[in-house]
Amino acid sequence: MKISYSWLKDLTGLDWPVEVMGDRLTLCGTACEEIDPLDRHLDKVVVGEVTELQPIEGADKIRKATVNIGDETLDLVCGAPNVAVGQKVAVAQVGAEMAGGLKIKKSKIRGIPSSGMICAADELGLFEDHSGIMVLDESAVPGTPLVDLLDLHDYVMGFELTPNRADSMSAIGIARDLAALASIKVKYPEYELKPIAEKVSDHIRVSIEDPDACPRFTARIIRNVKIGPSPWWVQKKLIGAGMRPISNVVDVTNLIMIESGNPVHAFDLDNFGSNEVVVRRAKNGETLKTLDGKDHELTEDVLLVTNGKEAKAAAGVMGGFDSEVTDDTKNILLEVAYFDPSIVRKSRKHLGFVTEASTRFEKGVDPNHVPVTSEHVAALFQQLCGGEVLDGIVDCYPKKIEPNTVELRPKRCCDIMGIDVPVEKMTQILRDLEFEVEGTDPLKVTAPTFRHDIEREIDLIEEVARIMGFDAIPDSTDSIGPLFTPTHEEDLFEDEVREVLTGAGFDEIMGHGLADSRLCKVLNPELPQLKILSPVSEELDIMRNDLTHTGLSTVAHNLAHRNLDMRLFEIGRVYFPPNDKDEWIEEDRLMCLVTGNTAATWRDRPRELDFYDLTAALDALSARFHWPKLGFEPEPVNYYEKEISFAVMLGGRRVGTIGKVSAKTARKFEVKQSVFLAQMSMDVLLELARDLAEFTPLPTFPAAPRDLALVVDTTVKVGEIVDLVAKYAGKIAESIDIFDLYTGKQIGEGKKSVGVSITYRSPERSLSSEEIDKTQKKIIAQLKKDFNAEIRDK
Fold first, then answer.
1. Please, what's the b/e burial string for 416-442 (b: 16 or more CB within 10 A of its CB; e: otherwise)?
2. What is the mean pLDDT of residues 304-320?
3. Which one of 15, 456, 477, 576 has the fewest CB atoms closer than 10 angstroms to its CB?
4. What is residue 211's three-state secondary structure?
5. pLDDT > 70? residue 744
């Protein structure tokens, strides 16, 4: 949705700078995504008068034009078919930069010097039209900067609107938000309609066969219109909305659609075929030739505007070819209607195209603004096209749509927002948005029919919140509202997990909770799936039962964009099969993964991220939350390699799994590099977390380090070796670490060398060499006995 800055200023009277206006609208939920100067490509572009045209020898399509630009005369080579002597044109001088990136320089074409260019509208960045040069008003003075002549010191504001805000698909809708932000009234356009005495009802009849599909249809007749170009003020508003001016009749219908949000359609009355309008469903096999010249075979899903015999338009989508307005049109049948969004959507999908009108009808227009829109269009036809408007309007409204009334509890509003908002402030905001408000507690709020999205109390609370400004709402740790609990344990725990992992170089991803049933079957073939009744796509047809799906899908997406090195984590929910009560279980989990290489530095070369980079992150979490001893026990998991597949243990309690994703599984996700992944239950991790570390006094007695180098079978787990050393060293072993692990020819097939470092220290006394040696010998003897270990000389 695009609207010019000046149009919004005209509708509100506000003189806020464009950046301020964009920011204020964004903070109230009407997101301004771009602000583009309308005069970006108009520097060094001036008015010129063509004084002479001469042919160029050997060239049929280009001519030499002599152009007066006020203080000098330029010779320009021009190939436009519509250039003529006496025209006032837009001339880009040397140094100008056109919309397509072309920089104007002195040049020679067929030997003729050319010191500029006569421009078409698209070259000036105004609108898409390269059929010929842009011809200016005869009164334009040569040498005048084009930006001054056309008053193009303006901006195009582009908005990214939420699907529920159909009212924002109009200049008035956006202006209404601006007015509410400033607590002022919208300046609605003023017009005067002077119809002739003849009654329109004597010349046209309207009937609706399907009131559910078309609750309201209005018709007017305007005679003796004169087709021609629109005045510049109309063209400028359309250009600011990203539309191309065509003719006065078409431009008026587009202008009112953009301004009010109500689409308008003009038929050539003389080609309509009867004095009767019938709105009905299409018959299977019926055909319609639309404005784009294509023939369409229709079904009952398409709603038609007919002359009682044959189709003349696809209602709410596009007009018919044989009743369109042309340069020869004299009499107009004006349609302004309200069509049900669902039927327009079905019609549009069947026909296979999207129009500005269908987009608005699909979101929902205001059914009770239809007569006002019709009157405004008729007044402009009278003013700009010289038309004679027949008196009255034929208004067929078989299914009246009433405004919706919703109650708002002020206390509930304050609780949800987390701040104190006076009832008077709530009332003022809602009234500024043109809602009717009665009472004080609760407020009885009647939403106008242009706000059909207001259905519940929470919708009204959102209106108060967005006009107050979302930036005015504190975060959960500062909120006063009872719905916000600053000490909410789960939220604080999640935040601290994020802090630790991002500090370790991981990036957070956020999955949407949906998954591909086929890929989830690859991951967990035995796990039942929670099907979605109306999936958004075939690839997202279940609720995920494993965060691995999101993790591998994200890796695949990044690899496709050549982002090869990743450390990712997600805190998200998975959905389990039914328990004994036939209720689906939702569990929060933490998933971490690494893939690719480490970053290169001046000191270190890149290396492949591996299992130990992942366990290092778990170590960091364990240190932060003071979990019990972190360990890993072999456990087969369907999507891990058999040799690298473990259960994650905290103090002997299983909290999740960790391993290397198997190549077979990775290929299913189109991942061709190693991925190491861990997944754990957030509830269990929180349960095992401790707020404070246990204080250990600083040692007062010296440490006695000892090392052991032993050779064992590769089947012996290093963790078992550490456990044995800890058991037989007893309390005097302050720490036990593995400092070396080696396999190779020197050791022998099926063997590995393990280096164990033991630090002996007593908190109560100095240890003697004899006591330490005795303990060391006991450990060695037990290692030989239990693991058939061979002790190596260091």
1. bbbbebebeebbbbbebbbbebeeeeb
2. 92
3. 15
4. coil
5. yes
Four-CA torsion 785, 787, 792, 794, nearest 10 degrees:
-110
DSSP-based three-state secondary structure for 540 = strand
**Residue 341, CA distances (Å) to 116, 208, 537 in order:** 51, 16, 22
Q: Is 26 exposed, middle or buried (0-12, 13-18, 19+ CB in 10 A)?
A: middle
Collect all residues with Cβ–Cβ distance below 8 Å to 753 and sequence separation of at least 6. 709, 710, 711, 740, 741, 742, 743, 747, 792
Nearest to 718 by CA among 627, 794, 789: 789
Banded model confidence at residue 479, pLDDT cuts 50, 70, 90: low
* Pairwise CA distance, residues 167 & 366, whole Å: 8
Report the number of secondary-structure helices (H) and strands (E) in the chain.
20, 40
Residue 733's H or E segment, with its range, is: strand 733-742
Give the containing element (helix H, strand E) for 607: none
Taking residue 617's Cβ as centre, other Cβ atoms within 10 Å add up to 21
Chain-centre distance for alpha carbon 742: 52
- Residue 236 one-letter amino acid: K
The first and second tokens of residue 433, run together, are 């948005």
Burial call 34-60: b when 16+ CB within 10 Å, e when fewer: eeebbbebbebbbbbbbeeeeebeeee
Paired residues of 65 in beta bridges: 53, 76
Between CA 263 and CA 253 the distance in angstroms is 8
C-alpha–C-alpha distance, residues 729 and 112, integer Å: 99
Question: What pLDDT was estimated at residue 476?
Answer: 59
> How many CA atoms are closer than 13 Å to the CA of 735, on its beta-carbon side?
8
- Strands, E assignment, 115-210: 116-118, 135-136, 155-160, 205-208
- In angstroms, rounded to a whole number, what is the distance separating the alpha carbons of residues 43 and 570? 50
CB 529 within 8 A of CB 589: no
Under a CB-based contact definition with an 8 Å cutoff, are residues 624 and 496 in contact? yes
Look at the block and give the residue holding tokens 């898409």: 128
Task: Output the average pLDDT for the chain.
Answer: 91
Positive or negative, the CA dihedral 323, 325, 329, 335 is: positive
- The structure tokens listed for 324 are 């369109």
Cβ atoms of 727 and 748 within 8 Å: the answer is no
Residues 6+ apart with CB under 8 A from 592: 501, 506, 567, 568, 569, 614, 617, 618, 677, 678, 679
C-beta atoms surrounding 756 within 10 Å = 21
pTM above 0.85, yes or no: no
The total of other beta-carbon atoms located within 10 Å of residue 474's CB is 14
